[in-house]
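hey so u asked for the seq, here:
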Amino acid sequence: MVFVIGLLLLEQTYDFIFANGVIRSKHQKVQSLEEGEYFEYVFLGSSRTENSIDCEVVEQITGKPCINLGISGSSLQDSYVLLKLLIAKGVKVKHVFVQVDYSYNEKDITLSPAFKATLIPYRKNPVIREQLLKEEDGPYILNVPFYGYLKYEKVVGFREFFNQTIRNKTGRNYENGFFPLTGTGKKLYGSLPSEIADKNNSLVEIQQLMSQQEANLYYFLAPYCSEVKNREYAKKLQDKLPEMFNYIDIFDRKENFFADCGHINLEGAKEFTKILITDFLQRETKAKN
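ran it, structure tokens below
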């Protein structure tokens, strides 16, 4: 009994420190937003969003607020939950862009472990609780004291608890959300799937969520280096998502724009962001005429 009480006290202490600490993740950034805040442009996805979209460039071109909520290693289900949390907070959005690539072939509607870990201190939130109940270990996270913090110690364990306690910031710009890569042309190779799934259930959920909002949903495929295998996958993806902005080959002759085959560097990101937002504005203008 004393042991259980100790775990409960530990859990409550961790919950309080994380909920009131500094912003050290994209999820915490969303939790910090206030009802009524507005973003004209929201970008979601994995590291191929996080490292590729500079919201400062978007804001310079459009004069409208932008946030990059891409997370390295995230799944499309992570993006869905992050978007759902954003909307549940009462944050207003107009244009939501989701980066899609091999992620379209994700079979399970599950969270990535790292993202799931960031949800643990906020597990009483209705959106998060609903999602955790779908996860294999969700009932344990919700009902067993301190279980989540122990299982996901690498993300929300003592080291992160200590960093929050001393309010140690990461040095990253969470207002923008763009985390650039440096270097050029390292490991210019990679591979895309040879086949494509019939559908992606997380994207279906995103589409259903967005259909209930006064906002617009778009897809884009960020650049890959020319050495990536199975490039025809991009055409198959375009067939599934006809309105997708497809940029797989936009930098084929510009290896200096790549940090590695699947990620562009700082110079490449600034150029790519400029191309994407300009193409978007031109498409919007044509649609109105």
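DSSP finds 14 helices and nine strands in the chain. The chain has a mean pLDDT of 95.
lmk if thats what u needed
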